[in-house]
Amino acid sequence: MAAKHWDRKDLLGLESLSASEIEFILDAAKSFSKSSKTFDTLKGSTVAFLFSEPSTRTRSSFEVAARRLGADVLGFSVAASSLLKGESLLDTIKNLEAMGVDYFILRHEQSGVLEPLAPLTRASLVNAGDGAHEHPTQALLDLYTLREKKGRIKGLRVVIVGDILHSRVARSNIHGLRKLGAKVTVCGPSALIPAGIEAMGVSVSHDLDESLRGADAVNVLRLQLERQNQNLVTSLSDYFGGFGLTAERLSRSPGCLVLHPGPMNRGVEISSEVADGPQSAILEQVSNGVLVRMAVLSLIQGWRTRRGR
Question: Are residues 158 and 32 part of one domain?
């Protein structure tokens, strides 16, 4: 049954959402695509960013989304904050909340850090990536792009290739794709596939060429070089030879849509010819990210308004 309205203070992940809640967000994002105007949905609200890891697309698109909805945006640098003096994340949130912040968009290196904090705040928390746990709005924009390009998600065959072990994007995508009825294969070298991932309802492959046969879409993950501290791949050239998405590989799957969450390591996990080619929807993902994040913020604002927050 379709959701009638959003009934959550926060967005922490897709694992806890129902299929109807996910579709509700995608439908709300679609409604924003029909207009380029600004809105006053968040007028009088303040949105703060707490990012302890780097970000270009996620932070920038959230900021664009918040401003288009009429919010005030608080420029906040974790690197210049009291977090570096030992203040807890909760104390930082509570102090900024006391100054009138209504929304926190958070990225943190620790998996699962937000779940215990959310019930302790009046402000709404939106997960912009926590460790290797989840990145819900990235998965939502991937789902939105896939639905727009393919017309549906149910029954599609989707390959997620690359560094699955360290990827919060992969986990959120798996939750969302499986809930909406897609068939998912994760593909990568054995060292980058987490043990027991089959329990999430996916197939596992170590052969990209085989995985691409009959695939409707391939989501190419960045090889997270900053997390590779155990020599999990022999060399970047070997990785590209085995799991890089090249034009030759993709030519055998002419109907396969190419996605990438960014940033791209060209020549490591994807060739420039593919990234900039006709089957690529990578820049459309970036554009759709603003719509999805507008949808998330506006739906949460609806919840806050109904409860007099």
Answer: no
